[in-house]
Amino acid sequence: MTFSKIGIVGAMVEEIELLHKHTDVTNTIHKAGITFYEGRFHDKDIIFGKSGVGKVNAAVCTQVLIDMGVDCILFTGVAGALDPELEIGDIVISTSCLQHDMDVTPLGFARGVIPFQEVSDFNADPRLIELAEQASERLFNGRYRKGKILSGDQFVASRETVKELYEDLGGTCTEMEGAALAQVCAMNGIPYVVIRSMSDKADGSAHVNFEEFTVKASDHSYRIIDDIISRM
Ligand code: SAH
């Protein structure tokens, strides 16, 4: 597979610090309040940045990366599990991403649907999904799921919301950036995949689990990215 410049996004410092540690950084660029690091990783040209939390931050970070000439984007980070079979540390690979907080239901649109737009559930790239799947198979013995990732500007920490997002919207996990990144990639015709490791179960204990497991989960997500890029 030939991608000539790979963009990588994480929302928080924990999600990109391992990548930073293992990259031979050759250039640092400041744009829109975000610091981007350009360098070589597994003999490939990469640019990565910490977007900050939430959809607006993710969207801006993604557009800046695209304007810098990346030809694919990988997201590495943590999320709250929605699928009850997922355990903390397990991996979710996006087949698509949807904004669960896009809600124009009073005007007759289904929840998650962006009005007057053909697509609201943005498909990830099949080649990148396959690479992520092969990496997860090898590194985590099949402890992964492929599925729809739901994004919204809210930290989900209630069993009722988990049930709703899982049953009504078919989400595998929930986080705060993926669908924004996916939408910007779609607008620019750039392939993407989101790789998330579960830091919590998005329930009443989410705020307790979150900090404890973010480091472990970020490590899992980084290892997948490392394996993917080594085979690109
Ligand atoms: N680190 C900050 C805030 C983190 S917000 C703090 O502790 O103050 C949560 C981040 O992790 C977001 O980037 C989001 O994408 C992801 N995330 C993990 N679990 C989540 C959940 N249950 N609901 C929503 N986002 C979650």
Automatic annotation (TrEMBL):
GO cellular component, one term: cytosol
Swiss-Prot/TrEMBL GO biological process terms: L-methionine salvage from methylthioadenosine; L-methionine salvage from S-adenosylmethionine; nucleoside catabolic process
GO MF annotation list: adenosylhomocysteine nucleosidase activity; methylthioadenosine nucleosidase activity
UniProt keyword terms in alphabetical order: Amino-acid biosynthesis, Hydrolase, Methionine biosynthesis
Gene3D superfamilies: Nucleoside phosphorylase domain
Keyword Amino-acid biosynthesis: yes
InterPro entries linked: MTA_SAH_Nsdase, Nucleoside_phosphorylase_d, Nucleoside_phosphorylase_sf
Name this protein carries in UniProt: adenosylhomocysteine nucleosidase
Source organism (scientific name): Paenibacillus abyssi
Lineage: Bacteria, Bacillati, Bacillota, Bacilli, Bacillales
